[in-house]
Amino acid sequence: MKIICALYYYYPYISGLSIYCRKLAEHMLARGHEVTIVTSRYDRDLDAEEEVKGVRVIRVPVWFRLDKGVIMGSFLPTIIRLGLRSDVVNLHLPMVEAWPIARLLPKKTVLTYHCQIRLNNRTLLGRLMERGIKSSFRRAIAQAATTVSSSFDYAANNSDLSDSLEKVTIIPPPIDPVSSDEAAQMQADYFRYRADIPPGSKVIGFLGRIVYEKGIDFLIHAFTDLQKKHDDLYLIIAGDYTDVAGGSVKHMLMRYLSAQDNRIRFTGRLNDAEVDAFYRFIDVLALPSIDAMEAYGMVQVEAMLRGTPVVASDLPGVRTVVQRTGMGKVVPRRDPHALAIAIEQVIYQQDYTTRSAEEVFRFLDLSSTVQMYEELFKGVGEVSRSGAKPLTAPPAGPARAPDRDRAIEPSPASSIGLTENQAHEDHHVC
Q1: What is the CATH number of domain 182-361+409-427?
Q2: Rg value, the chain, Cα
Q3: Residue 54 exposed, middle or buried by CB count within 10 Å (0-12, 13-18, 19+)
């Protein structure tokens, strides 16, 4: 089966979306399928075409950047040209070109809806552009063979997806089991030395891009309160802040750090071995995201697979991981006080359910992700080759709510933290 996967940013760019697509592509390749990635040549030092772990990657020249996105004149024509000779075209949204592609290739287009769009430009023009992009998403969903969402909770609470649930297939993200090769694992104490943290300390960890929607400012507020009570507590903020689409908010966060905040560490980007060591070293992972730009939070699953509990925001999709496993706490978004209480309960009172890696995989239905995608792609490919009418419901069945995945309205936001105007000044927020 020939599969085209298209997205704006692919490896070596690091984000939840790029990691998701990379894992999916490599698994499909391992199952004997021919996979081609079409993406942006966001860095001119990158090759225009190469193989990354056996996957063919075509990088299209960037004309210019607009907000978080990249404008590429040959992106759409390249996808259409390759798509005509393929069985499936898998578009990873957000993507402005999704609608014309789905309209031209309706029988073979599969959308993977990662998150809502949120532009940095919060002026009237920016909001009008955002509205137009969202309209394009809805048209693409209507035209495509099917749309994949990571959870029913997210789909049912998403304005782009909730009106088309009959065309949505629920497939959890592709997350690999933890390697059993102990010799290949970096020692967890690596971070004790790298971050200069005394033995016996308790550590809160954050891992992700240093951007506005991650809610890191609320985590810093919560930590500031906690360190007044606990002098053994440290905070490690790990993740890229130098190569981020739309820019990072690290410079904004530094305004919150006083001379007394000497127990907060920024590590920058981590490689795979360092990520594994990071999860094993920290006592709790915090995921304080504040809006629907966060749809699942694969980092919280990766932490749980290594035995580390999580405190996550009460956001559709995000909250389901803790709700299903019991391995942590769910707190109202934008609420540093509630975040501090939950972190304290998890670290100092051990108030969470311990799960093995096998149990985490089972509770989150992760073992069937690749097979579900393969069956979905095969079904779409068969319909496309037969010339039949496009599907009105996905081959794997329409979205439905599992017993443990209820659609609940998120908690109301408080007014603490970076405002949109603060976060978006100088266009430094992704």
Answers
A1: 3.40.50.2000
A2: 21
A3: exposed
Q: How many CA atoms lie within 13 A of 406 on its CB side?
A: 7
CB 137 within 8 A of CB 127: no
The mean pLDDT values, 10 residues at a time, for the chain of 430 residues are 97 92 96 97 95 96 84 96 97 94 96 84 76 88 96 95 94 86 63 88 95 92 94 93 75 71 87 90 96 92 96 97 96 97 97 93 90 96 75 48 41 38 36
Distance between terminal CA atoms of the chain? 35
DSSP string across 285-327: EEE---STT-SS-HHHHHHHTTT--EEEE--TTTHHHHHHH--
Domain borders along the chain are: 2-174+367-386, 182-361+409-427
What architecture is the 2-174+367-386 domain classified under in CATH? 3-Layer(aba) Sandwich (3.40)
- The first and second tokens of residue 300, run together, are 């919280």
Q: Evaluate whether 284 touches 347 at the Cβ level (below 8 Å).
A: yes
Q: Which residues make beta-bridge pairs with 149? A: 170
Q: Can you tell me whether residue 41 is helix, strand or coil?
A: coil
* Rounded-to-integer distance, Cα 150 and Cα 160, Å: 14
Q: How many residues does the chain have?
A: 430
Tell how strand 69-71 and strand 64-66 pair up: antiparallel
Q: Is the fold of 2-174+367-386 the same as that of 182-361+409-427?
A: yes
Predicted model pTM: 0.86
